[in-house]
Amino acid sequence: MGKKIQRLRLPIPQQVVLGTLLSKQVNYSRLLEREPAKTRSRQIDVLRHALEFAAKPELAYSCAWQIRSAKEIRYALLDAFAAEVEAIPAWQPPAGPVHHVLPALAGLGEVAREDRKKVFPGLPREVNAERYMCLANLLPLAGGDIGPETVEALAEEFPNHSDAAALIADDLRLRSVAPDRRYFGFRPLLLVGPPGCGKTRFCRRLAQLAGVPLRVIAAAGMSDNRDLAGTARGWSTAEPGAVIRTIADHQVANPLVLVDEIEKAGSSRRNGRIVDTLVQLLEPETARRFHDDCLQHHADLSAVNWVATCNSLDGLPEPLLSRFTIVRVTAPGAEAFEAIYEAIVRDIAEEFGVEIEDLPRLDPLAVEALRRGFAAGLPIRAMKRATERAMAASLRPIGRPN
After folding, report:
1. How many other CB atoms are there within 10 angstroms of residue 194's CB atom?
2. From the centroid of its chain, how far is CA 293?
3. Of 54, 203, 239, 315, which residue is 20 to 30 A from 366 by alpha carbon distance?
């Protein structure tokens, strides 16, 4: 069947799609051969279910009524799908700024399915080579539409992060000078502040506005650097590093990576320290040739955006600190309650997948209690939990005890 597909002289992406469609159909064809006593209506239903994602309904009925054997079904589908597949456009480089994550594999992103293991020779069976084939193509650098003013406006929602927003906005202004660098990118930031002051929420909101994927790496308790550097081949859990996995899954070359509570990472050098790996990834020169232990290729990760958070700088090595712009984040004052409360309600709505108007409205007395707690030093994280509990309480049946 593969040779017959190749004789159609279709571009490789179309061949892959066509082969996938046919491979899905073979199982249904064998089902029909095993159950010849079933009525034609049953065969129609089976075929229609197999083809509903790719074929017109009348094609499913035609195949079911006119074709008997599995071989006839496969070849008829080949002819019927040829016109459908030819309409699928071949892969084209994305418009706007682009980036090669695996420059050594340039041009190999559309190789035939059976040759993909040759691109990553020796890759363990547990690692899906197809997942990372996109890294051989030019990938887009997202966020070109976000302007400095949009980032600076985050200071209204996160008043205690105004310094960080201003630094990112300045980097975006500098990038706007060069047309080929008009994408979301800024120099690494280290946010230092007490727990619960909104550092993670700020990064999540920033990535949402920029339209780039966010990867959160919880450094607390990490005893080695495998999640960043990738797990070497030979281990049953071998897989590429977290940054490369994020780029491959979202097919965007400039994600935002947040390393949370970096000061709590393990300090043993026995299996590699995360801070030592970060030193390589934060330096543009070494990030351009970062070696992934699983893929066994040098990846260009210089377009990745980095933010790290910590509660204290104690114990962090100077080589790491020198690669960050350090920003002090304090707990927000009482005057920031309205902005933070609105942001918390929006976060809750997004988590439940509903509009803000669909959430239960809090009684003014409950809002006032939240305001007093916030003024007394209630952390943002605790304030969100209190808001959720107040919403849940407002939905209780009347007369039910607290």
Report:
1. 13
2. 21
3. 203
Are the CB atoms for 190 and 327 separated by under 8 Å?
A: yes
Which backbone phi and psi does 118 adopt, to 5 degrees?
A: -70, -25
Find the helix or strand (DSSP H, E) in which 138 lies: strand 138-140
**Cα distance between residue 51 and residue 29, in whole Å:** 12
Say which residue the tokens 């069976």 belong to: 125
Place of tokens 């990472």: 265
Q: Tokens 């502040």 belong to which residue? A: 193
For 164-177, how does the pLDDT look when each residue is reduced to its tens digit (9 = 90+)? 999 999 999 988 88
User: Which letter does DSSP use for residue 253 in this model?
Assistant: S
Query: Is the alpha carbon torsion for 50, 55, 56, 62 positive or negative?
Result: negative
| Phi, psi (rounded to 5 degrees) for 324 | -110, 155
Which is it for the CA torsion 316, 223, 229, 129, positive or negative?
negative
Can you tell me which residue has the tokens 């960043």?
228
Per-residue model confidence as pLDDT tens digits over 69-100:
445 555 565 566 555 545 545 556 667 788 98
User: Cα–Cα distance between 128 and 147 in angstroms, integer?
Assistant: 37
pLDDT tens readout for residues 126-147: 777 778 888 888 899 998 888 8
The radius of gyration of the chain's CA atoms, rounded to the nearest angstrom, is 27
Q: How would you classify the pairing of strands 98-100 and 138-140?
A: antiparallel
Instruction: Supply the DSSP symbol for 204.
Output: H
Reported pTM: 0.70
As a whole number of angstroms, the distance between CA 87 and CA 64 comes to 24
The distance from CA 209 to its chain's CA centroid, rounded to whole angstroms, is 15
Contact (CB, 8 A) for 211 and 305: no
